[in-house]
Write a structure and sequence with these properties.
The chain is α+β, with helices and mostly antiparallel strands. The chain folds into two domains: 154 residues, Ribosomal Protein S5, domain 2 (2-Layer Sandwich), CATH 3.30.230.10; 106 residues, GHMP kinase, C-terminal domain (Alpha-Beta Plaits), CATH 3.30.70.890. 26% of the residues lie in helices and 29% in strands. Strands 1-4-6-5 form a four-stranded mixed β-sheet. It has a four-stranded antiparallel β-sheet with strand order 2-3-7-8, covered by helices on one side. The two termini are 26 Å apart.
Length: 270
């Protein structure tokens, strides 16, 4: 069986307070986009569970991959055979796009379907939350308003259908712990829920990502990409998550874009 985990972008990201446990409370809109990995599961040919990765190179041993963590989570409760897992990476990592979380969540969904485990959706969400803060989003995989550490969801009717996205990922890795260590928590001047009710043309400057101030200061190239996308006609542009990818939302996809040196560029409909 094969499935295609997709990425997400953050529409606004407010770090509203620091928690006693050291984590931060945040508010954001998670919005799915069309750049996808491919995840296939077949019976093991040699015994034991093995993860085979192609496409974008992934650092670290395969046993630490979130896909394998999802598999082990299922195997602790259900009897399923040994598997060969094939993961083709297309979603850049270290980009604020949730690629690893998407892969893990879709692994839970795939195993539930393939082996007819009949795990309820709410249980899958709980399981996914134990893997990663934003992992649970990919179980439902539709726009949500998220709060807490990114694991408490409220449905939203926000739709960007008819718009297009240009995503630019420079060859820069932004450490998530470092990004959180530099960010300052504060209540937003205009509540996120109020901003997204306005026309998208009014979002810029109101729908903000609090990580941008510190990340752009350390990595000016990322800030320049945002400026370029706005210059090319994006009605809204922002960094996603804690970086380093930047997206621009366009009414029409530009026929020509400036050269983004040492960058991965994706264009698609929303």
């Amino acid at each position: 069986m094969i499935k295609f985990p997709n990425a997400k972008i953050n529409l606004g990201l407010n770090i509203v307070s620091k928690r006693p446990d050291g984590y931060h409370n945040l508010e954001t809109i998670f919005y799915p986009i069309g750049i996808k990995d491919a995840l296939e599961v077949v019976p093991s040919q040699t015994g034991g569970d093995k993860l085979h990765i192609s496409g974008i190179e992934v650092d670290g041993p395969t046993e630490n991959n979130l896909v394998m963590k999802a598999l082990r989570l299922i195997k602790r409760q259900y009897m399923i055979p040994d598997l060969d897992i094939y993961l083709h990476k297309q979603i850049p990592f270290g980009a604020g796009l949730g690629g690893g979380s998407a892969d893990a969540a879709v692994m839970l969904l795939l195993l539930n379907e393939l082996f007819t485990l009949r795990i309820p959706e709410e249980t899958l969400i709980t399981m996914a939350s134990g893997i990663g803060a934003d992992c649970a989003f990919f179980i439902k995989n539709k726009p949500v308003f998220a709060r807490g550490i990114g694991n408490e969801f409220e449905e939203t009717d926000l739709s960007l259908k008819g718009y297009h996205c240009v995503l630019v990922k420079p060859d820069i890795h932004v450490s998530t712990p470092e990004a959180y260590s530099l960010v300052k928590s504060a209540q937003p001047e205009v509540p996120l829920k109020e901003v997204i009710r306005r026309p998208i043309e009014e979002w810029q400057g109101l729908l903000v990502n609090d990580f941008e101030v510190s990340v752009f200061a350390k990595y000016p190239q990322i800030g320049k990409i945002k400026e370029q996308l706005i210059h090319e006609g994006a009605v809204y542009a922002s960094m996603s998550g804690s970086g380093s990818s930047v997206f621009g939302i366009f009414k029409e996809l530009p026929e020509w874009l400036p050269a983004f040196d040492n960058c991965y560029v994706w264009k698609g409909a929303l």
